[in-house]
């Protein structure tokens, strides 16, 4: 059996695998693709000590770093976890891997709007992460789709950078906490449009506007702008753990400060957990924490 089996090959999983392998213990990593969300990222400017890099380049150097160590890499999808004497992980191809400890780092995905233009203009004006891409829209007009906590937080954040921010909410009311709404409405360069159904993100080589339908009147409107931040939810890739590992209301794996889950010997790290913020550097930190905790568990059992 493995000593440590990591599920997920993004920043969290790769870091966990390296930390585990450096303890000289039998380490494996299962990932359906190596690199995770950073493969879908263009510019990265907040990975400290690297002023600028691009997602695919960072993903390649993460993979190269993992391959420096004796780690069994399996490009596969995990579909079931079961705690017996050892922890068993079943893969989509039917194989069952056994390990003394498991680190779950299957990440998350941004919920897409699913309107024309969204896919086409990803990284060309369509963005999902205000901490990451906000500064690219300095002095420009942007929209935030979604008036929940993350949408309103994003709008407040972006209002300090962009010239103007328009928030589009599908429902008749914003869903964000009252204190965030108060802050939002106090800002001079923010417009809130409720009952707005986004119909299309328009552009040529990059975004130049958004079309929405006023759900009350049925009228169609178009706003000229340069950026659209989609903030309608981050979904953790944890559906396959239903009924085995404890998750919160939105499906994030609940971990303690050591990265331990409710199942003995099972740890978790990165965007699939209930950690406060979802960033590369934060995922890597939690991957290191989970691996050290798994090692600590092994020497006590
Ligand atoms: P992920 O990167 O999501 O990796 C999850 C891994 O698990 C993947 O390898 C996936 O294939 C695998 N996996 C999932 N399910 C299974 C399964 N069942 N079996 C096997 N493998 C599975 N952060 C920043 O710090 N700076 C930025 O500039 C930045 N820009 C971003 C731009 C975009 C467009 C996006 C989407 C995100 C951005 N982020 C940025 C956030 C950052 O990418 C994430 O916080 C980080 O990648 C999370 O790492 P992770 O390892 O937890 O998860």
Which terms summarize this structure?
seven-stranded mixed sheet; five-stranded parallel sheet; redox-active center; 6 helices; FAD/NAD(P)-binding domain; binds flavin-adenine dinucleotide; elongated; 301 residues; disulfide bond; 2 domains; alpha/beta; single chain
CATH superfamily of the largest domain: FAD/NAD(P)-binding domain
Q: Helical amount among residues, as a percent range? A: 10-25%
CATH level 1 class label of the largest domain: Alpha Beta
Based on secondary structure, the structural category is: alpha/beta
Order of helices and strands: EHEEEHEEEEEEHEHEHEEEEEEEH
| Cα-to-Cα separation, first versus last residue | 15 Å
Counting structural domains, the number is: 2
CATH topology of the largest domain: FAD/NAD(P)-binding domain
Question: What molecules are bound to this protein?
Answer: flavin-adenine dinucleotide
Largest sheet: 7 strands, mixed
Report the principal-axis shape.
elongated
Counted by DSSP, the helix tally is 6
Which value, in Å, is the CA radius of gyration? Answer: 21 Å
The CATH level-2 architecture of the largest domain is identified as 3-Layer(bba) Sandwich
Strand residue percentage: 25-35%
Assembly type: single chain
Subunit structure: Homodimer.
Domain FAD/NAD(P)-binding: 2-286
Cofactor: FAD
Keywords: Disulfide bond, FAD, Flavoprotein, NAD, Oxidoreductase, Redox-active center
Structural summary, described in words:
The structure is a single chain. With 301 residues, the protein is an alpha/beta fold. It has 2 domains: 2-110 and 234-300, 3-Layer(bba) Sandwich (FAD/NAD(P)-binding domain); 126-230, FAD/NAD(P)-binding domain, CATH 3.50.50.60. The chain is built from 6 helices and 19 strands. The chain has helices spanning 11-21, 55-67, 130-133, 149-159, 178-185, 280-300, and strands at residues 2-7, 27-31, 43-44, 53-54, 71-75, 78-83, 87-91, 96-104, 108-110, 126-127, 141-145, 164-168, 190-193, 196-203, 207-214, 220-224, 227-230, 234-236, 266-268. The strands form 5 sheets. Strands 1, 2, 5, 6, 7, 8 and 19 form a 7-stranded mixed β-sheet that branches. Strand 1 (2-7), helix 1 and strand 2 (27-31) form a beta-alpha-beta unit. The longest helix is centred in the C-terminal third of the chain and has 21 residues, at 280-300. It is elongated and about 65 Å long. It starts with a strand and ends with a helix. It binds flavin-adenine dinucleotide. Flavin-adenine dinucleotide (FAD) binds at residues 7-13, 30-33, 36-38, 40-41, 44, 46, 77-78, 105-108, 110, 128-129, 132, 237, 240, 270-271, 278-281, 283.
